[in-house]
């Protein structure tokens, strides 16, 4: 059974299937995405570079509570919709340093959320998104847990948003309006911390590698399950397995089980 080029670099121990047959599946074979593959762009300068390192403007109107030593901070006492440009820049720096920042009781609407995100640069559109130019709205009362039995990647829960893109997004803003009493939790981890926890030997090893990120598995599964698919053809992208964050200067392990299927030596 033939393999596709997108699967060439899948490690045998990655948990991903090493041989799939999308060409034998009429849903996948006949689906034609409406949008072209994106070209690489030169993004604008990260807004965090414009921030006061002390974050005085932001922290003078908000209370910051760190959730753990290395990742996660809650900001209380503010409305995101009321922050000025200086405070938004300082928020960007805080997100870069802490990985994820939480806010409760916000008055954000979809329109306000889009406007806020536009401050930070070019808005991305997820390749699986079918409606609206910038905004994904998800709402469901259906129990989708059984879908996990049919996905070809069993460890897709942990991922970095759209890491497979030529220009992965710098920031993501998730707004939750309603949630169940229990369950449905989202967990975050620090890629800074993952890198720091490696031995010197492993650090040297991974620094010489590129990680292979692909949307092929996600693409095939969506088309196969729902008979329709993402807006764009699947892509495979090589990114350094270890990256130095342009804002913080910290080293991060740039791999995730959601999209990374293998490794290649750095060119």
UniProtKB/TrEMBL annotation:
Taxonomic path: Eukaryota, Fungi, Dikarya, Ascomycota, Pezizomycotina
GO CC aspect terms: cytoplasm
Record keywords, A-Z: Dioxygenase, Iron, Metal-binding, Oxidoreductase
UniProt cofactor(s): Fe(2+)
Protein name per Swiss-Prot or TrEMBL: TauD/TfdA-like domain-containing protein
Residues of the TauD/TfdA-like domain: 65-261
Residue spans crossing the bilayer: none
One Pfam family of this chain: TauD
Entry GO MF terms: 2-oxoglutarate-dependent dioxygenase activity; metal ion binding
InterPro entries for this protein: AtsK-like, TauD-like_sf, TauD/TfdA-like
Similarity remark: Belongs to the TfdA dioxygenase family.
């Amino acid at each position: 059974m033939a393999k596709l080029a997108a699967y060439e670099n899948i490690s045998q121990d990655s948990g991903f299937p090493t041989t799939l047959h999308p060409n034998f599946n009429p849903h996948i074979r006949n689906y034609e995405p409406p949008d072209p593959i994106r070209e690489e762009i030169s993004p604008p300068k990260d807004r965090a570079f414009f921030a006061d390192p002390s974050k005085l403007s932001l922290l003078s109107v908000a209370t910051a509570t760190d959730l753990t030593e290395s990742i996660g901070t809650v900001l209380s006492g503010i409305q995101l919709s009321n922050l000025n440009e200086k405070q938004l820049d300082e928020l960007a720096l805080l997100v870069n340093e802490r990985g994820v920042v939480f806010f409760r009781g916000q008055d954000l609407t979809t329109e306000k959320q889009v406007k806020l995100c536009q401050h930070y640069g070019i808005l991305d559109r997820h390749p699986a998104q079918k409606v609206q130019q910038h905004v994904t709205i998800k709402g469901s009362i259906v129990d989708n847990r059984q879908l996990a039995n049919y996905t070809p990647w069993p460890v897709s829960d942990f991922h970095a948003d759209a890491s497979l893109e030529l220009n992965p997004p710098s920031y993501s803003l998730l707004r939750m309006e309603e949630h169940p009493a229990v369950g449905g939790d989202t967990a975050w981890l620090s890629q800074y911390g993952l890198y720091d926890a490696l031995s010197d030997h492993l650090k040297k090893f991974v620094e010489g590698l590129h990680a292979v990120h692909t949307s092929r598995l996600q693409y095939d599964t969506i088309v196969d399950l729902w008979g329709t698919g993402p807006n764009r053809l699947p892509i495979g992208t090589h990114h350094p397995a270890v990256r130095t964050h342009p804002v913080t200067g910290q080293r991060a392990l740039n791999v995730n089980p959601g999209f990374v299927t293998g490794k290649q030596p750095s060119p």
